[in-house]
Amino acid sequence: MHKLVCAALLLLLSLSWSKTVISSPSGSHRYKSIFSFGDSFADTGNNPIVFGWYSVFDPVTRPPYGTTFFGRHTGRNGDGRLIIDFIAENLGLPYVPPTLAHNGSFHRGANFAVGAATALDAGFFHERDIPGGYSKFPLNTSLGVQLEWFESMKPTLCRTPRECKNFFGRSLFLVGEFGVNDYHFSFQRKTVQEVRSFVPDVVATISMAIERLIKHGARSLVVPGVIPSGCSPPILTKFADAPPAAYDSKTGCLTAHNELGLHHNALLQAALGKLRAKHRNVKIIYADFFGPIMDMVESPHKFGFEEDVLMVCCGGPGRYGMNSTVPCGDAAATTCRDPSARLYWDGVHLTEAANRHVADVWLGVINSFTGVSTKQGAKEPCRLGRHRI
Ligand SMILES: *[C@@H]1O[C@H](CO)[C@@H](O)[C@H](O)[C@H]1NC(C)=O
Ligand SMILES: *[C@@H]1O[C@H](CO)[C@@H](O)[C@H](O)[C@H]1NC(C)=O
Ligand SMILES: *[C@@H]1O[C@H](CO)[C@@H](O)[C@H](O)[C@H]1NC(C)=O
């Protein structure tokens, strides 16, 4: 019977041979839900709640946030959809509800990500007076705290250990991005060289989180690396007085900050390699965040972006369109005419157009894995050359 179905599918495919059919193999049925941990790159609406607890200013609850896609602010740090939104769409799942702002079921996914979250616990930074002054950041929303939130929710999602393994085994876990805030907060007080010494701690924290999720039953995890911080408008603005030699002459990015990101990504990939060797039945997917952004910085025209690609779309007067006294969301801020012609939205965050490109790259990797394990008696998917359908 299975063979017959496969044959029928192959026939259908040969009749309507198209790239889309092949590259997006029945995505909608592979995962039952998405569980997400991270910071503002993944936060679909938790940050207004958390920032409210601490009485800190949160610009994302004002226009023009959300105007490109949702038509209103949603708590997302962007003009429209985030990478996680494009992933959910592609997998045929609902947008992942932010756990602190959603009053309803989390059976099809839960997003624990919070803007400004760090991998390391807040105490690590407060002990070192980072970022210092009167700042309340980092808030108590680290990866470890998000895992505690997940563990508190777990009894509402599944009961027996067997049921939980089954449920989480058919879920996609997004672990990150984490690290960008650990480093960006630290740059306020520490040199790039000093911050480099934090990288092993950050990577070890991500690694431990993955182990913990695997113990709960996770079988498919996507673990993004960090962005090229040296091309990030807030970093470029903060170090605006750097000597000419500090910049990559081709891109205008700060070389040392980008090297820190490459170092993080190398250590992270090595750690993921060890985890894969230890957990052979678990899919641990590295998602490159650095490369796709560099591609857009290096060849803006290829992506429909304007020449001065390091300029943010929304902000105040300044070389990169950023000005600490006039943040995006402020009444005096200006917004570019066409956000889809920009890489950066309000500073560190990307526009929906850029998020779409990054999501396409990640989905290419996610979809090249088969999804649900074929072990426990599940049917072997039909094979079609290298692809499975
Ligand atoms: C959540 O939803 C339930 C029922 O749908 C309702 O009774 C309850 O008041 C809601 N809670 C909040 C905090 O909105
Ligand atoms: C941080 O949050 C966690 C989880 O909600 C809680 O257990 C812990 O006590 C909090 N720590 C601080 C320092 O507030
Ligand atoms: C930032 O904005 C303020 C107020 O508009 C302005 O006075 C200042 O010159 C701006 N800073 C830069 C670096 O452009």
TrEMBL record:
Gene Ontology terms for molecular function: hydrolase activity, acting on ester bonds
Signal peptide: 1-18
Source domain of life: Eukaryota
Keywords, in A-Z order: Glycoprotein, Hydrolase, Signal
InterPro entries, alphabetized: GDSL (IPR001087), SGNH_hydro_sf (IPR036514), SGNH_plant_lipase-like (IPR035669)
PANTHER family: OS01G0223000 PROTEIN (PTHR22835:SF620), ZINC FINGER FYVE DOMAIN CONTAINING PROTEIN (PTHR22835)
UniProt similarity note: Belongs to the 'GDSL' lipolytic enzyme family.
Official protein name in the record: GDSL esterase/lipase
Origin species: Triticum aestivum (Wheat)
